[in-house]
UniProtKB/TrEMBL annotation:
Associated pathway: Amino-acid biosynthesis; L-tryptophan biosynthesis; L-tryptophan from chorismate: step 3/5
Name of the protein this chain belongs to: N-(5'-phosphoribosyl)anthranilate isomerase
PANTHER family reported for this sequence: N-(5'-PHOSPHORIBOSYL)ANTHRANILATE ISOMERASE
Keyword entries, A-Z: Amino-acid biosynthesis, Aromatic amino acid biosynthesis, Isomerase, Tryptophan biosynthesis
Catalytic activity: N-(5-phospho-beta-D-ribosyl)anthranilate = 1-(2-carboxyphenylamino)-1-deoxy-D-ribulose 5-phosphate
Protein family (similarity comment): Belongs to the TrpF family.
One GO molecular-function entry: isomerase activity
SUPFAM superfamilies: Ribulose-phoshate binding barrel (SSF51366)
Biological source species: Kineosporia mesophila
Record keyword Lipid biosynthesis present: no
Pfam families attached to this UniProt entry: PRAI
Amino acid sequence: MFVKICGLRDLPSARVAVDAGADAIGFVYHPASPRHVEPAQIRSIVDALMVDGRGDVPVETVLVVRGRPVEEVLRVAREGGVRTVQFHGGEPDADLQQAVDAGFTVMRALSLAEYVAGGSSSTVDARLLLDAPEPGQGRLMEVPDRALLPRTPWILAGGLGVGNVGAQIENLRPDGVDVSSGVESARGVKDHAKIRQFVANARA
Ligand SMILES: O=C(O)c1ccccc1N[C@@H]1O[C@H](COP(=O)(O)O)[C@@H](O)[C@H]1O
């Protein structure tokens, strides 16, 4: 089970996620979000996580964007030193392809309705993440019929937390889970105990 802890803004929380065994950590570049981080802040965290101060970071680092021009996205991703870009705003295939061509791995976040309406038909090499229509709000994705869910690998986000991640995995059978609000004590403030417990519960 792939586990991503999203919305990180400080090094201690990032270290807790890595030490707990998360596969990926996410940084939100979206000025309207309480989790927004500037590229220099991302870079300082990524650099500090490098093993022995150099080489690879022992976790996938993800930049989360929503509706920003692709030139700005690529600049922030390069300055931040991340490996992956998560496009979370219905961005066109051309933007995702540009990120792939620039050497980033790519995730495409869709609501279930967008996915069902054909958002899966792209040829871009991107991992699929399904989320509630309004991201980062701690709201569960509604699934009226499990037959609508992908038959190829996908990641579940939206409203997950320590108390429900096990049941959601059991019920919806995603290949990965992604959380932000559910591991916070207040919006934008990560709770270290919840991060540890979330990773443990996702893997139980
Ligand atoms: O977290 C945000 O503020 C955010 C802003 C813009 C795009 C995506 C955002 N977060 C993504 O939402 C899910 C987590 O949602 P939840 O808080 O656990 O309900 C995750 O994919 C984040 O990357």
